[in-house]
Structure formats: C-alpha cells, structure tokens
Automatic annotation (TrEMBL), chain B:
It is found in: Cell membrane; Membrane. Keywords: Cell membrane, Electron transport, Flavoprotein, FMN, Heme, Iron, Membrane, Metal-binding, Transmembrane, Transmembrane helix, Transport. The keyword Iron applies. This is Protein-methionine-sulfoxide reductase heme-binding subunit MsrQ. Belongs to the MsrQ family. Binds 1 FMN per subunit. It comes from the Bacteria. Its main location: membrane. The gene is msrQ. InterPro entries: Fe3_Rdtase_TM_dom, MsrQ-like. Its cofactor is FMN; heme b.
Amino acid sequence: ADFNFAPNSNFRPDLKLTDPEHALNYNNFYELGTDKSDPPRYADSLKTDNWQVRVEGLCAKPQTFDMDDLLAFDQEERIYRFRCVEGWSMVVPWIGFPLSKLLDKVEPTSQAKYVEFISILDRENLPGQRFNILDWPYREGLRIDEAMHPLTLMTTGLYGKELQNQNGAPIRLIVPWKYGFKSAKSIVTIRLTDKQPVSSWEQAAPDEYGFYSNVNPNVSHPRWSQAKERPLGSFFKKKTLMFNGYAEDVADLYKGMDLKKYY
Amino acid sequence: MPLAIKLILFSLICAIPAGLLSFNLLTDNLGANPVEALEHTTGDWAIYFLLLTLSITPIQQMFAPKWFMPMHLVRRVLGLSALAYALIHLAVYFVFDMSADINETLTDIAERPFILIGMTALLLLIPLGITSTQGWQRRLKRNWQRLHKLVYTITFLGILHYALLVKADLFLPLLYMTLFGILMLMRQFKLPRLR
C-alpha cells in the first residue's frame, strides 16, 4: 500500500527539527544491540514482512490487524519532542494515528484499566535477544487514560517515510510526555488488562525506571539529574520541561499524585 | 636513537587516540552526541592506559623483554597518558555536562556515587603524576613505592565508576574488572620466567 499522510499543524510546527541523520543513527533498541550504533548496523535482522498486531484482553472485539489495516487509519504527521531517560533529546516529525482509534475498534470493557504493549520476540534473528540483558520480549505499559490520550500515537513513519527498522518498524508507540523507553518499538501485541503491567525496564531496575516514567526535571534518576537534556547534535544542555513540554495537555492525568513516589 | 627522542615518540604514540578524537571533533564526525563520544572515548583510554601500566611489571617478570627504552620510563609515559585522558574526560564533563558551574558539579558529586568514585580515582591519580619524576622518586625514597601502589586502588575505582554508569550491559566493565583481577593476582605469586 502507498504510504500517505497529512501534516497536522497543531503539533509544534515551530520547533527546530533534529538532523535526520542523528535520529536514524543514534538509537536505543536493545533487540539489535546495546551500543547506540548497533540498531542501524543490524537493522536488517529485524524481519517486518507480514507484520500483524494482535489487540486482545479485556475487550469486546479482540482482533488481529495487519499493516494494511493499520495504515488504513488516517495517518498524520506530528512534530513531537522526544526525551530519553539518559538525558538526550530530539524533535522529530512522527507519522501515525492516535492509539485511541485502534483501541476503540476492539471496544475495551469497563474492567480494562491498563494497556500492555509487547514487542517482537525473535531470538534467532535479533542479535540483542541472544543475551538476556532484558527479559525478552520487551514489554511496556500505560494506564488506560494515558493510552486513550490524544497525544499517544501509534507510529508508522518518521521524516516523511515509513519507519526505519532501527526506529522500531513497522509500528511503534510514541508517548511524548514520557521517557523514550516507554514508547515500545516493533509492537506485536497490545493487551487490555485490569492489573498494572510490569514493564521490562521496571523489572530490570525498579528503583531506576518506574511504571509512569513521566519526563520530570524535578525527579532525578538515581544516577543522574533529569533537570537538563542535551539535544542531539549540540554540545550544551538545555532545561528539561515538565512532562517534556506537554504539561498543559497531560498534567490533569496525574492530579493529586505524588510524582516523586510514582516516578 | 637518543633517549629523549624515544620518549617523545612514545608519548606521541600514546596521544594518537586523542589526535583521532580531535580530528573527528573538528570534522564533525562524532555523531549525534559528540559530548558523550568524547566522554566515553577518553574514559575508555584512561582505563586502557591504567591496565597497560599495570601490565608492565608482570610482562617484565615473565618475558624480560628488551624494551625500547628503560622499563620505568615506558611505565611512566603510560601512567601519565592515563592521567592525561582522565583530565580531558573531567574537563569535558565539567564544561559540557556541568556547564562549567562549580556548585552544580559539587551537587552532582554529592548526589551520585559513580561521579564521586570517578572523581576520587582522578584526584588520587594527580599526585602520582606529579611525583612520577626521578627527582620525586629520590626525595620520597621508600614512600615513593608506597604512594604509587595507589594505582591499584585508582584502577579499581575507575572501572567501578564505569560499571555503575552503564544501564544494563555489564560486559565491558566486567571484562576490564577481570583483566584488573588477573593483573592483581599476578602480583601475589612469583611468576615463572617464560623466556
């Protein structure tokens, strides 16, 4: 199918874009290796043919979608800030559609309180999955209201093209107010649950990577400050914004919560 | 070849990684995160040079090679190279990570054990660099050896600093720690003369 999309000018068209070379060549995607240069180098070992996404769990109409089904949703381009928990950041034009549109199709039941995202498991081909650096497959999770939020994007493209493998092809999540690792790549299963899922990083180091992992300059990572970030390609750091600059849109989701406790 | 020339040549060889790094910096070839590249490369080389420094004595005992200049000079240049790379590493961190702000740096040291450990290693390495000359060796007599045994602690702290920094993949820090462990064990035994 052709890859068609329309720019959505409501999403930060004034931000200066990161050089595409940086976004395409500096990646955390441990399935392809732990070094930032591994994902582009081993991109070919991610097999994306006949990709399907199963949406299941607490819903009336569990379904399996293939890529044509997913590309049939109106694809829009949105410029988002992206902030990695490691302290670097970028501004890139993602292409995709709100996750809520996909979830609406399966009709979540009233018991569905959380959404779990499961990435590809392919130990044979993915070089990073030969080592148990994380408990494969990669898992992430959102609260249902976070998942249904209009900013939460199922992402199929970047810089006007379909997603490159190193960026999580053929379909990934983008949650722009959370640290980058929350935005699971190469997703194969989306599961509606009544219990808070344990994400892979949370399982690996619970004191460092919490379930919420909202971008928050006031809550340090145990080993480094989160007050500043370094935009890719630049030498000096700039101040990190609360909820990565999306406080106006998402702060209400966390009203009354102690964000130091629920980091 | 006169000794002075040999010394200069060997120092230049040890400076090659720094030269390559400068070249890549000036030609904009350090990738998306040049500061991280500078920090990681200089940190790596500081550890490599410390491990090389620690290898000289066991190599001498086992193989008694004919060095191209007196062994203690080879070791001195290697040790001073470790110090040089560690100082560049610190400078990059101070200027680009800490915005050259002393208060911010002190807070970072106080809050983050891996920074404190790295800083301790570097501070301990500085007196070894200063007293590396023959003049200081004469002046300090037996204390010189005692002082320079600190290099064991420094190397351990340097590798620990690295191990505490990585997110999940401990392969390299564990490899360095193993090499360090082997070099330390070799000092506990009378090594066989293999040549």
